[in-house]
Design goal:
The chain has about 170 residues and is mainly α. The chain has 5 helices and 2 strands. A two-stranded antiparallel sheet has the order 1-2. The mean pLDDT is about 90.
Length: about 170
């Protein structure tokens, strides 16, 4: 059985607690995203060092390696989106299909040690950019492909939930 694509719009996590992973967006601001993201890196390293990191728990769920590869790419994607929001007025974001990225990126075949290195590099770059955002920039807008507007604050909250939720998914 193939991985079932998640087609839910997770934007709601910017306004209320996630019942699955426990993420609470209250108090999340761009200056809190960086430290929280940095704190996940050692935990992802531990996940990627596990025996059986390539094994899926069932046929329709990603392996820990696939989740970590996804998080690496999410860090890269949100880093570029944050930079666009800081450089441009109300930039538009094209839709990103995580399942296509997993297939094209051959997540299951990647080297866990290399993914750990790349995830750390992407997380630190993204954390640094969030930490450089000044309070007067927190509400700068960006436009999702479905027409929903992000602010830098809600982008950070949405992004941080993504990283933390996937840690929950792999039991980290």
């Amino acid at each position: 059985m193939a991985i079932i694509p998640d087609t839910k719009d997770w934007m709601w996590v910017t306004g209320r607690r996630c019942p699955d992973c426990g993420f609470d967006p209250a108090g999340v601001t761009p200056d809190t995203v960086g430290p929280a993201l940095r704190a996940t890196v050692p935990r992802w390293h531990q996940v990627l060092a596990r025996p059986g990191v390539r094994e899926r728990p069932d046929d329709s769920t990603w392996s820990p390696l696939e989740y970590a590869s996804h998080v690496r790419d999410v860090c890269r994607l949100f880093h570029s989106r944050l930079e666009l929001m800081l450089e441009q007025e109300n930039p538009g974001f094209t839709n990103w299909d995580a399942n296509v990225a997993a297939l094209e990126g051959r997540y299951r075949e990647q080297d866990p040690a290399e993914v750990a290195r790349q995830l750390e590099e992407a997380a630190i770059a993204t954390a640094s950019t969030f930490e450089a955002v000044t309070p007067d920039q927190w509400e700068r807008p960006g436009l999702r492909s479905n027409g929903t507007t992000f602010s830098i604050t809600t982008l950070g909250s949405f992004f941080l939930h993504e990283v933390l939720h996937h840690m929950y998914d792999v039991g980290a």
